[in-house]
Amino acid sequence: MGREHWKKIWVGSAGNMVEWFDWFVYASFATYFAGAFFPEGNDTAKLMNTAGIFAVGFFMRPVGGWLLGRVGDRKGRKAALTLTVTLMSASAVLIAVAPTYAVAGYGGAAVLLIARLLQGLSVGGEYAASATYLTEASAPRHRGFASSFQYVSMTAGQILGLGLQIVLQRTMSAEALHSWGWRIPFIIGALGAAVVFYLRRNMLETEVYEETADDGVARGEKGTLKALWAHKREAFLVVALTMGGTVAYYTYTTYLTKYLSNSAGLPKQTATLVSFCALIVFACLQPLAGRLSDRIGRRPLLITFALGSTFLTVPIMTMLRHAGSFWPALGLSLLALVVITGYTSINACVKAELFPTGVRALGVALPYAIANALFGGTAEYVALWFKDAGIESGYYWYVAGCAAVSLVVYLTMRETRDIDLARVGAEKSAAGQPAPVRA
Asked: How sure is the predictor about 284, in pLDDT bands with cuts at 50, 70 and 90?
């Protein structure tokens, strides 16, 4: 890979990191600000309220996927990426200044809700724009490796959020954190987004986007639902292959800290440290798995993930609940994250490889956002619902079931490693369906 490839990957990844820092600190700091926006009551009920608002952000992701996916296909990947970070910066500022229940009643929760809606719009477009950008910006033989940096940057954003949480936990009293300390990460996130806005304003467009002409999508139809409907099979495939991966990912990342604290009984500081250490290893695994997919293909990694998640989720979650201390919890968390690496490391390029250039951003964005709204965004709420109902183990089977559905898809889908991104649409127009072509 040349210098220009690395430059594009760096800029795309840096922006993605800040986007997901802002997105995930909501979840990681929810235990501290849950009581700030809702009246006194059951602690689990407060978490369910904040988790509900977290889920609402996911339901805006299809809207963001449609709007920003359209921008990405019609105006360019750079334009979409710049717009997403602008929306994220605005949402972080709103959360940072939102009034508490004691000051404005449910008005503070309303501000929180508006901020999450903006975050949903932003992240709905960010995933597809960055997935498309990283896949197109890489050398053909290194697409799996390059696109894996999407989850490296996503995880880095969460690591930074957890690292900040650890620092604040050790330098501030619990009372101060619950009172006002939880606002600090959102202020930092807003400042980081401003820096990324500058970087993205000066980023380079991908050559595939600029040079592709014959991709089977008419100029006036680029980024439209009509053009996407012509590739409806691929769109439904994105939903199905995302289902198991997104539930597992949010279970072992955003929900893990709450689960270890609220269910396993670990102190908040210990639960946070477990997540922090596990995610560092997880981030390091992504490029290795992405590089492996460039050698052996995407399907073997996806199938390995689905098999592991289907058969290991119940025992891992059950043992995590009784882990009792740092090291057993860390070991089990690492095992779970190693399993889902088969999905996270390559899912971005797999989805991008299914669509022609003129509808690639929208094709990745909209179906992926729908799948996340239905499964990823509700994962934490569903988990807490099972817990509140006294049947927490039911959630373990839910995660395993979603992975089993995706397993069927992985076993029947075609390999995408050798597809020529510039000719996906042209070949479908000529042959009736996309066919793998050595790039």
From this structure: very high
Please, are residues 308 and 339 in contact by the beta-carbon 8 Å criterion? Answer: yes
CB 272 within 8 A of CB 185: no
CA distance 377 to 130: 20
Distance CA 32, CA 408 (A): 40
> Maximum distance among all alpha carbons in the chain?
66
Place of tokens 């600029």: 210
Contact between residue 335 and residue 316 where contact means Cβ atoms under 8 Å apart: yes
d(CA 123, CA 214): 30
Q: Which two tokens stand for residue 91?
A: 């949402």
Q: Tell me the pLDDT of the chain averaged across its residues.
A: 87
Please give the distance of CA 271 from its chain centroid, rounded to a whole number.
21
Task: Name the residue with higher pLDDT: 438 or 192.
Answer: 192
d(CA 138, CA 3): 11
pTM value surpassing 0.90: no
Distance CA 36, CA 180 (A): 9
Which structural domains are found in the chain, ordered by start?
7-203+224-417 (1.20.1250.20)
Sequence-distant (≥ 6) Cβ neighbours of residue 166 within 8 angstroms: 269, 272, 273, 276
